């Protein structure tokens, strides 16, 4: 199953439209679910929901073979926690998809990490998905469930001081 | 009362990536008196056994939302009286840090989101004025006058 998520309620119709077009061409056995938030575009070629609560979101990621998302840390970290490959399409400020371009920077430093695939443009989504699915058995993100011990120790020490 | 008993921590974060990053530093609060504040009622599932409050998620331009947020935070702060407030952002947490510091003289810790790679977030930049500990998760953004870099959640 491929889980498409915009990561919040803030619309990201560009991703949903592109994935709906991809869905129209997909192999019929490929299962999809899209979380579309408050977007105006309603997919015609894939099942969708507006939002998922935290537990359902985690369960859906756990069940997915691949996550396709905006370049937000919530989506990236959750995919990493469940060892799921992820394709990210960064939101762009000039298109009104976010108030800053920080997702471009996020995509920049995440690029080439294990299991993380960046689609810079809509047209890159298809090839990125194909690449991620082809390598999904040996190319997964691995993320410890918590922050590094040294960082946690320093925060704790500060709280206790 | 021992010093340990008087220490109460408020961990506050917006939804999505901000909350997920807070969850990654949860072990720092192990065995301590901590309660959580975020914007999605269903996030309570991530912090079983802990007190959890939901606040309104506001942007700066939402004046009515801002008034609601201040009322919600006042109620929480006066009821719980935290001595330490820690956050991973964003805008509502900035308001909370300012209020906690002025109402309760709480010690305040701002950890800017790891998503802010090129510059501090706008809330993060403003947090300098209300944070006792002011952190970035990127070493190249730290400087002698702050923010400091202590590490990152990844």
Description:
The complex is a heterodimer of chains A (161) and B (154). With 161 residues, chain A is an alpha/beta fold. In chain A, 39% of the residues lie in helices and 14% in strands. Chain A is built from six helices and six strands, in the order βαββαβαβαβαα. Chain A is globular, with a radius of gyration of 16 Å. The mean pLDDT of chain A is 95. Chain B starts with a helix and ends in a 5-residue tail after the last strand. Chain B contains five helices and seven strands; from the N terminus they run H-E-H-E-E-H-E-H-E-H-E-E. Chains A and B meet through helix 3, helix 4 and helix 6 of A and helix 2 of B.
Blueprint of the fold:
The complex is a heterodimer of chains A (161) and B (154).
Chain A: E1 2-5, H1 13-25, E2 32-35, E3 48-49, H2 54-63, E4 66-70, H3 73-81, E5 86-89, H4 102-110, E6 116-118, H5 125-134, H6 149-160
Parallel strand pairs in A: 1-2, 1-4, 2-3, 4-5, 5-6
Chain B: H1 3-6, E1 9-12, H2 17-24, E2 34-38, E3 52-54, H3 63-80, E4 84-87, H4 91-104, E5 107-111, H5 122-126, E6 133-136, E7 148-149
Parallel strand pairs in B: 1-2, 1-4, 2-3, 4-5, 5-6, 6-7
Helix pairs in contact in B: 3-4
